[in-house]
Amino acid sequence: VLTQSPGTLSLSPGERATLSCRASQSVSSDFLDWYQHKPGQAPRLLIYGTSSRATGIPDRFSGSGSGTDFTLTITRLEPEDFAVYYCQQTAHSPWTFGQGTKVEIK
Amino acid sequence: DVQLLESGGSLVQPGGSLRLSCAVSGFTFSNSAMSWVRQAPGKGLDWVSAISRTGEHTYYGDSVKGRFTISRDNSKNTLYLHMNSLRAEDTAVYYCARPDSGWTPFNSWGQGTLVTVSS
Fold first, then answer.
1. What integer pLDDT is reported at residue A91 of this predicted model?
2. Engineering a disulfide at B108: which of A60, B70, B82, B98 sits with its beta carbon 3.0 to 4.6 angstroms away?
C-alpha cells in the first residue's frame, strides 16, 4: 500500500511543493514513479526510478527517497503545475498507485 | 509520434461483458509490454492489468482477477481488455499505457474510454 500526504496542498504560484509517498513495505528505488494528472487529460509520467526526470519534464520537478519514504518536490509552482500527483510502485505485485495529492491554487 | 487510442467503452448492465480496444501507432507494438489503468469517478488511478510483448505473460490487479482478460494482436497493433461479470465498481475511464522499455514506467498513455456499469 502506498499512502500519499497531504491529500490536498493549497499553494500559490512560485511556492515550493513537497509531496510525500510512504510505502507499507520497502520498495526498490528503481520501481517508484510519479505521475501528474489533470482533469480530462491522460496522466503524464514525471519521475521514474525515484529521481530520474522523464523526457521533457522541467527541472523544477525532482524526486528523492528510498526504502519506504519517497518525495516529489516542485521548487517553484507554475500555473500549469496545479494538478493531482500520484506515486506508483511496481516492485511488488500487484502494482499500486497512491491515492493522490491534489495541488490546488491557494 | 506514439499514439494510443482506446475504444469500446459504453453503458453496460451489472453482470454484463465488454471488450475494450487500444489501437497503437508510432512504435513497434510487438516490442512493447502494455498495461491497462483505470480511474473511477472521483477516485485515483488503479492499475488493472499488464501483458508481455508476445502475450505469453499476463498480470492482473486483485479486483479484476478472474473476471478480466488482457490480450493483444500484434498483427493488428491492438491491445484488448475483455471484461466479464462487470460490477458497478468497475465504472471508470480505462486507459492503455505503454513503457518505453521493460514493463514500466508508463511513458505514453491514451486519452481513455469510459465504461459505465449500471442498470
1. 94
2. B98
